[in-house]
Amino acid sequence: MRIVIQRVSEASVFVSGAKLGAIGPGLLVLVGVGRDDTETDAAVLADKTVNLRIFADSDGKMNHSAKELKLPLLIISQFTLYADCTHGRRPYFGTAADPELGERLYELFCERVSQSGLEVQKGRFRSYMQVQSVNDGPVTIILDSKSLLK
Description:
Elements: E1 2-15, E2 18-23, E3 26-32, H1 39-51, E4 53-56, E5 62-65, H2 66-69, E6 73-77, H3 99-115, E7 120-122, E8 130-144, H4 145-148
Parallel strand pairs: 3-6, 6-7
Antiparallel strand pairs: 1-2, 1-3, 1-8, 4-5
Helix pairs in contact: 1-3
């Protein structure tokens, strides 16, 4: 699995003009699932996400996690994180999970984050979404479960 974590002041997601989810300060997480991913990948990334110390303490040092500060997450599925752009000009998505696996592991990731006690807002899997966010910092972290599971 691959995720992009953005520390945000606010973020929201819309489908067909209807707001599905919104958060104030917290994390916007884009989640891509690969065809070789398993429940272990989802669990490792969820645990890493909620415990990453990317929020400032009173000295301005990144020393607090979303879990510690009880901040919400807006979690969006995004298969395009598996785009292979090495050949030609059109991305190839053959390493992305099929929709059934992708949705199952996306939902597992969301459930695991929720089990940590944090509020989870979500987009809609396999839908065209519009995501708005105000990146705070900016702080953007990219994680790949395969590098964490070595």
